[in-house]
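For reproducibility, we list the full input for the flavin-adenine dinucleotide complex.
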Amino acid sequence: SAARIVVIGGGFGGASCARALKQIDPKLQVTLVEPNRIFTACPFSNNVIAGLRSIEEQKFGYDKIAASGITVAALEATTINAAARTVGLADGTSLAYDRLVLSPGIELRFDALPGYDEAATAKMPHAWKAGEQTLLLRKQLEAMDDGGLVVIAAPANPFRCPPGPYERACLIAHYLKTKKPRSKLIILDAKDTFSKQRLFQNAWKELYPGMVEWISLSQGGKVNAVDPATNTLITDFGNHTAQVANVIPPQRAGRIAAIAGATDNTGWCAIDPVTFESRSAPNIHVIGDACLAGAMPKSAFSANAQAKTCANAIATLVAGRSPAAPKLINTCYSLAAPDYGISIAGVYHPKNGLLADVEGAGGVSPLEASRDFRAREADYAQSWFATITAEVFG
Ligand code: FAD
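The corresponding predicted structure, in tokenized form, follows.
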């Protein structure tokens, strides 16, 4: 009988994987487990925060996926029995599988930053999962007086979307420059370097002179604790009291990955770079933000590429053959302003048990470029979002 594949998580990784499996072999019995009827996408959610886009444009449903022969179980997966190969769902029913794919995304660590617990997110939004949090940060910026201080706390590596905090700084600065020009934005960073750093720093100077300040780890940027009652962020070098505080806390793999026994002591999932099978939980594959993909960043583009690679590997494995070594691609676009795009691209292959950069491939946007060139990259960013969401949900 046809192999049963259960995919947990209907985001960029999981939905892509379910679709790819069905396309590769329509006989596979594919079930996608996702409690939300509507998925709210993070890419371009920084535009929503800056008032440049409606949250409705971030929302996607599962009707087309269900119509393509995939069973959609609109429930949370709560337990996994790896020995019996079953997944327990929130309604008490269970699903049997031959192969299981996990793409649960991230869990925010409410145990990592003193003062930053779940309740604190109502005062100091993370907006690192799109939806209500995105809108809350937007509302706080709208309510802030001209001359206010916005602080973004950025975490250490690894975390979801390495360029995301810096794109957010740009787009919030764009809003402030347009509507509240006496305001300031500080990024308190737990790192000394970050993705597309020189491009971002040049954009801050060029577009938002005197408005954006980045405080690195060495300069005392690491936030050690927060006080939501006073909107204060505490560092070794002093305290910052913000009118709007966007705290992006440390993260780990979505909780179900730990329940599956697929996480290691980092909180993320070590995988085989050819098949994405867990190093610790046989027949369980982990893709997207939850996995440790070596040099590949945690992005929707990566999750989609990993999903296709994993689907191919699973179809090959269930047919009794062994999959060949893959090559994967990632591109991350960021907007420094609505008409100013920058990008980073990479190509990856398995090397010494990890996904490593293919040397000489990939790169970043040129440091010197015309505004026309930057505007074209901003258009490519829009096209990328339209293309990937049509492929995954359309
Ligand atoms: P997700 O897309 O988060 O999907 C996980 C899904 O799993 C969720 O729908 C969740 O409900 C479900 N789930 C979790 N646990 C369970 C369970 N137990 N049972 C059932 N379902 C479960 N990436 C880019 O490529 N380009 C960008 O421009 C970009 N911009 C970003 C901007 C911001 C502000 C942020 C925060 C992120 C951005 N990203 C971008 C990153 C991108 O959003 C993530 O890398 C991507 O969503 C990862 O896909 P995933 O499948 O791992 O997780």
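Residues 8-14, 33-36, 39, 42-43, 45-46, 76-77, 103-105, 128, 160-161, 164, 254, 256, 288-290, 298-301, 303, 332-333 surround flavin-adenine dinucleotide (CB under 6 Å). The chain has a mean pLDDT of 98. Both points were considered when choosing residues for closer inspection.
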